[in-house]
Amino acid sequence: MEEAQAHPSRCPDNSAFKQQKLPAWKPQLSIATVLSSFFVIGAVCLAAGICLILSTNSVREIEINYSDKCSNCSKLRENSSNWNQECNCSAGFVLKEDMLVSGRENPAQIA
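The structure corresponding to this sequence follows.
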């Protein structure tokens, strides 16, 4: 018996916390709750998708091809020793109609 007292037990205390037996919420999953939550989440996602599609239909895009206008920059970059030289390229364009840009009616107001 003296040997048992000399070496204390390495077992944890017999408490609910140390034995990992704390009470926890355990959901009661039935067919009705699973299906209803599935359809509710599906309806919310469908509504969000419809809103996104309707908002993207009003987006207007323009494409500007500037590959021929910046050929001098591409020639400059062919030589790797020119990595630190600055090269500016600009391509002019005209908008055919007013567009809403950053909450403003006139794109010239952005600058």
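The mean pLDDT is 80.
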